[in-house]
Amino acid sequence: MVVNAGEGSDSQARVALESLCRQYWYPLYTFIRQRGRPHHEAEDCTQEFLARLLASEAIAKASPERGRFRNFLLASLQHYLANEWQSRQAIKRGAGQVLLPLDFDTAGERFVREPVDPGLTPEQAFDRNYALDMINSAIEALRNDYEKTGKGKLFAVLRPLMWGNASPESLAQHAERFGMKPHAFTVNLQRLRVRLGERLRFEVSQTVADEADVDAELRYLIAASSGPGATR
């Protein structure tokens, strides 16, 4: 997404990068928290890191060889934590750079509510939260589409059924409560699942350098999203 925008103008590349940062800042915050930082320090560090990333001219000229945005983002943060953050703690947050308006007030609460999995490394937890945010982003995009066409109530009924295999009896009960015939209800659920798959592929395609990497990245992220806290 950033590479393609960079072929247009610096401003387009910055908009593309800012869009990705807005979507995936929370996994950065959780990675810092799981490295032992308290909420306010993790907030400052995340904002400082993103501000410097957005101010970097090099990102607009990112080469396709950099690969997945997920890997680039985490590697950049690890480098930043190891080499820059410690020496900059006393400097005012953002160092005069423009900060993204991120919802850190709820980030601390969300982090505390999430089940602790001692078997996950901070890197694995980053991947899981990255995957969950991508899935939630795809679901929200679908919800908006349904609401625009007056089908918001149908989406609300179908959403809990998108994952897993509901029994025919269960689907029939949901259909009856919604006032729809079982076959029509099942068809709508299948369509939603197909649309979710298409939306996830689109989301992933914006974060890999090669179209051939989409399927592998999608499989990896779906696997990473499993475990404690995967459903919310």
| pLDDT averaged residue by residue | 81
Rg measurement, Å:
20 Å
Helix content: 55-70%
Low-confidence stretches: 92-96, 228-232
Computed structural class: mainly alpha
Number of helical stretches of at least 4 residues: 10
Count of DSSP E strands?
0
Shape: globular
Q: Write down the domain tally.
A: 2
> Sheet bearing the most strands, described?
none
Strand percentage: under 5%
Termini separation (Å)? 27 Å
Order of helices and strands: HHHHHHHHHH
Provide a short characterization of the protein structure.
With 232 residues, this protein is an all-alpha fold.
Structure description:
The chain has 232 residues and is mainly α. It folds into two domains: 1-113, no CATH class; 120-232, no CATH class. The protein is 68% helix and 0% strand. It has helices at residues 2-6, 10-34, 39-55, 69-88, 104-113, 122-148, 152-158, 168-178, 182-205, 214-224. α2 (10-34) crosses α6 and α6 (122-148) packs across α9. The two termini are 27 Å apart.
